[in-house]
Amino acid sequence: MNLSIESSSWKRIFHLLSKPVVYHSIFWITVLLFYSGFEMWVTGNNLFYVFSNNVIKLIILGIAVYYNIYVLIPKYLAQKKITHYFGFFILLVLVVTPIESFLIFSNSESLPEVQAQIQRDLNLTFVLNFFVVGTSSLVKITVDWLKSQREKQELQTQTMQSELRFLKSQINPHFLFNTLNSLYALTLKKSDKAPDIVLKLSEMMRYMLYECNVPLVRLNKEVHYIGNYLDLEKLRQGENIDIKFEVEGTISDQKIAPLMFMSFIENCFKHGLGNHITPGFVHISLIVEGNKMEAIIKNSKPQSMPKPLNPRSGGIGLGNVKRRLNLLYPNRYSLDIEDAPNTYTVDLKVSLEV
Q1: Residues 118-176: pLDDT tens digits?
Q2: Which of 76, 292, 343, 348 could form a disulfide with 81 if both were Cys (CB 3.0 to 4.6 A apart)?
Q3: What's the pTM value of the predicted model, to 2 decimals?
Q4: 220 shares its domain with 314
Q5: Residue 147 included in any domain
Q6: Burial class of 178 by CB neighbour count within 10 A (0 to 12, 13 to 18, 19+)
Q7: Which ranges of the chain would DSSP assign to H, the alpha helix?
Q8: Which range marks the domain in which residue 168 is found?
């Protein structure tokens, strides 16, 4: 409970700090305190004089900073024209520094010693202005990077969710209607298999509709779902089809993205057995060693079959499957596909979450 409250509080704070008016205000307050403290420490002047001088500085620096943020960075730095950017950046600081010094010099008419000090400190003023305007560049770059990372993460999440929903939509109607037809035939025969089929179908639908709405699920649940799916396919395909599902190794707390294998398994029946005249086979092996998992999915192919309108790539397309793997398991998977004359084999290796 306390962790959720703290997490919510941090999110609100981050959301507040991400607003331009907030972080711009923080930046200028920091600059004001920096300049005021530095000037009072060096000169020992009174607060009103220091404040009036800093108002002048903030106006001049504000012009320089916002010109840097809204003109120089988008026009040059964002376009990777680094030399042009730094050239105009230094020129900008060279222009605003004497203007700032002249205005403060004019504001110090009754203090000739201070005026003389302003002239002597022109180089120091340039360095301080360079630091402040340069800091604005770092702040702008950091904010833009955080924003792009957040947008990238949101896009990845939306992409994965949409692809998962699309995968479900590909599996649900086709598989559900065929299974219901087979179930109807069993009920007409008053078969003892009917209650077991209803239970398996109920478990599958519950898993797809409710338990898959998270980024990762337990591997044992995914394995149980695949087993139910294959059992129902055995019912649909008949006794002459050789369907095997073997699991090697220990399944404990490993987690995996939901329905990761289903486009490949569905294809075994859609593009493989579905085009057979003679009996065929689907053999699936799942090998688990710690957080390493290998899935080998192999099915027979007919000697000849009509060329599909779309490449043999699965319910959501091989390209989409690879993209989903790239999003979920970057540099943590390998996918090998062998399309032989009589067989089709998928070999997927993934490093799982534990």
Answers
A1: 778 788 888 888 988 888 888 888 878 877 887 777 777 776 666 656 655 555 455 66
A2: 76
A3: 0.54
A4: yes
A5: no
A6: middle
A7: 2-17, 20-43, 47-67, 82-106, 112-120, 122-188, 194-206, 219-237, 262-267, 318-328
A8: 155-351
